[in-house]
Amino acid sequence: MTLDFYEGKKVLVTGGASFIGSHLVDKLVQLGAKVTVVDNLSSGKLENLKESWSKIKFVKKDLEYAKLEELVEIFKGHEIVFHLAATHGGRGYIHTHPADVCSNFAIDHHVFEASYVAGVERVIFASSACVYPPNLQNQSGSSYLLKEEDSNPFNLEGYLSADIEYGWAKLMGEIQLIAFIKQYGLKGCSLRFVTAYGPRENETHAIIALIYKAFEKMDPYIIWGTGEQERDFTYVEDIVEGTLLAGEKVTDGTPINLGTGKRYKVKYVAEKIFEIMKWRPKKIIFDTSKPVGVVSRALDISRAKTLLGWQPRFTLEEGLRKTIDWYIATHTPKGYVNEKLLMERSG
C-alpha cells in the first residue's frame, strides 16, 4: 500500500497511544505524515509509541473534560483527525461499566466540535460493530453478514437498535459526525471495527485473554460462555490499512465495515492458540455466568471493497501467530491468572 496521500499531511490521532491508535500512528509516520497524538493515557501507553516517539508530537489531554478553546488550540493547523479516543474495553469491561462508556457521547461531540471550529478538513471516526441490532446476531451458526444498512445513521426516522450502551454511544457518534457534516460542511466517515486483535491489545479482549490464560498455563482453562459464540476476528494491520484508505477516499459520512466476512467460534480460536503455543490444558471449563455478548457476528465487507479497494490480508492463523509472538516477547509468566486483568482495561 503506497498511500502517497499522507506524505506531508498534518494529522492528529486521538487515542493514539492505544492499541489500534498506536499502530495507526506508526503507519502514518512511515507514510511521511506530521502526526500529533492526543491521549489521556487512561488505557493507552507511551510505550506503544516508542517506534515513532521521536517523530511525533504528544499532548496529554482528557477529551471528555477539556474546554473547547483548549482543544481548538491543539487541533488547529491539522488537516485530518483520526478519532479513536473512547472509553472502551472488551465485553467484560463494557458490560460492567455501562455509565463509563456513555462518556463517549461527550468525547465524540468535543472532538467533532473542536475539529470544525479549528478548521480541520475531515474526521475519521472509529466506530464499532456494536452499532448493529442484537436481534440480527442471536442465531448460532448464522451465515448472515451484517450490512451497513442494518444500522443506517442517515435514516433517523427508521428503526435503530444497538448492542448495549457502548453500541448506542458509537451509533450516536456516527450520527453526530453526520450532523456536523450536514450543518457545518465537515468531511469524514465512520469505520465499524469488529473484534480487532493484535500486538499491544490488553487482556479484556477475547483473543488476548485466551492467549494470556494459555501463557499462564491455566488448568482447568476457563472459556467465557459456551465457546459456541462466533466472531469476525480482524487483525490490527488490516484495520489500519482500511482506516487510512477511508481517510483518503470517503468524506460524506458513509459508515464502512472493516472485518473479514468470516466467523470463528471462540472454542476454535482457543484450540488454535493451544496448537500454536504447543500447550494444552487437561481440562476446559465453559463459564456461562460471564458476559459474552451476541451469539454470532460477522460483517459484510462489500462496501469497503467497492469504496476503498480494501480487503483483509491476514488469515486468522497468521494474525494469531504474530500476536502470540508479541505476547511471549513482552510478558513474564506470573504463574496465575489475575481475574481483574480480564475485566479492567489496563493499557
Written account of the structure:
The protein is of the alpha/beta class and 347 residues long. 36% of the residues lie in helices and 16% in strands. The chain has helices spanning 19-30, 68-75, 91-96, 98-101, 104-118, 164-184, 206-215, 236-249, 266-277, 302-308, 316-330; strands at residues 10-14, 34-39, 56-60, 80-83, 122-128, 187-193, 196-197, 221-224, 230-231, 234-235, 252-258, 264-265, 284-287. The strands form four sheets. Strands 3-2-1-4-5-6-11 form a seven-stranded parallel β-sheet, sandwiched between helices. Strand 5 (122-128), helix 6 and strand 6 (187-193) form a beta-alpha-beta unit. Helix 7 (206-215) crosses helix 11 (316-330). The longest helix has 21 residues, at 164-184. The chain is globular, with a radius of gyration of 19 Å. The two termini are 29 Å apart. 49% of the residues are buried. The mean pLDDT is 95.
Tally of individual helices? 11
State the major sheet: 7 strands, parallel
Catalogue the unreliable spans: none
- Estimate what percentage of residues fall within beta strands: 15-25%
Average pLDDT figure: 95
The helix/strand series, from N terminus to C terminus, equals: EHEEHEHHHEHEEHEEEHEEHEHH
Task: Trace the largest sheet across and list its strands.
Answer: 3-2-1-4-5-6-11
The Cα radius of gyration reads: 19 Å
State the secondary-structure class. Answer: alpha/beta
Q: Looking at the structure, what is the overall shape? A: globular
Question: How much helix is in the residues?
Answer: 25-40%
**N-end to C-end Cα span:** 29 Å
